[in-house]
């Protein structure tokens, strides 16, 4: 029993490290992409950056939740942290949906093609490499800890990978084909995925009952 507990503590520590790496990287994504997106007028890049705020929020809440268990929190506290974390992530998702719609509609109204900046392209290409590694780490320790929340976060990171490809395609079509509308369209293609994740996170948060301390499912 002690060996199993030690093994779980080790996996909790490693899971926390993966989420810390995810948090730091996503903060960098947000700063670079939103700054460049606002300077160049790219709705797709701004929307992608705003979605990274959800990734950062998710990472922060999972660090909080995993540290609670690692430090010996009781089952009720762990479930409470899971519920709070899911609601925080859900709210962040809904805010991002509203922000993306605003940016895209504004771009359609102005009908101005965004400018070009290598910093924006660079962060997108770096993400194509970093995100699969983060997703693999999250899923690996989510499976070892039997943690749906970690595996759910891994899926979110893979969705971000898809979004990165969409944004790169939108910027490419805008710059090399002269299609000004490709950028806001790329932004709008992100909305259904973000909205679905918002819905799922909200539903999951409602299903958690901290008073059922004897529940066997881990966050």
TrEMBL record:
Main location: membrane
Regions that span the bilayer: 84-110, 116-136
Key word Nucleotide-binding present: no
Keyword annotations: Cytoplasmic vesicle, Endosome, Membrane, Synapse, Transmembrane, Transmembrane helix, Zinc
InterPro entries attached to this UniProt entry: Cation_efflux, Cation_efflux_TM, Cation_efflux_TMD_sf, Tmem163
GO MF: monoatomic cation transmembrane transporter activity
Signal peptide limits: none
Source organism superkingdom: Bacteria
One matching Pfam family: Cation_efflux
Subcellular location: Cytoplasmic vesicle, Secretory vesicle, Synaptic vesicle membrane; Early endosome membrane
Membrane topology: Multi-pass membrane protein
Family: Belongs to the TMEM163 family.
NCBIfam families: CDF (TIGR01297)
Protein name: Cation diffusion facilitator family transporter
């Amino acid at each position: 029993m002690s060996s199993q507990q030690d093994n779980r503590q080790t996996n909790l520590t490693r899971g926390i490290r993966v989420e810390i790496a995810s948090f730091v990287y996503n903060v960098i994504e947000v700063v670079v992409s939103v700054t460049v997106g606002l300077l160049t007028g790219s709705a797709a890049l701004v929307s992608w950056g705003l979605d990274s705020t959800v990734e950062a929020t998710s990472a922060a809440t999972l660090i909080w939740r995993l540290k609670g268990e690692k430090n010996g929190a009781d089952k009720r506290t762990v479930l409470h942290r899971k519920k709070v974390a899911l609601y925080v992530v859900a709210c962040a998702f809904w805010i991002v949906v509203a922000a993306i719609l605003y940016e895209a509609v504004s771009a359609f109204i102005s009908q101005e093609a965004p400018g070009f900046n290598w910093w924006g392209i660079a962060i997108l290409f770096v993400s194509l490499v970093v995100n699969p590694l983060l997703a693999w780490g999250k899923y690996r320790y989510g499976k070892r800890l039997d943690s749906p929340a970690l595996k759910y976060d891994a899926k979110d990171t893979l969705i971000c990978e898809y979004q990165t490809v969409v944004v790169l395609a939108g910027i490419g079509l805008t710059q090399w084909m002269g299609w000004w509308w490709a950028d806001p369209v790329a932004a709008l293609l992100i909305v259904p995925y973000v909205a679905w994740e918002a819905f799922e996170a909200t539903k999951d948060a409602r299903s958690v009952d901290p008073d059922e301390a004897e529940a066997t499912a881990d966050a």
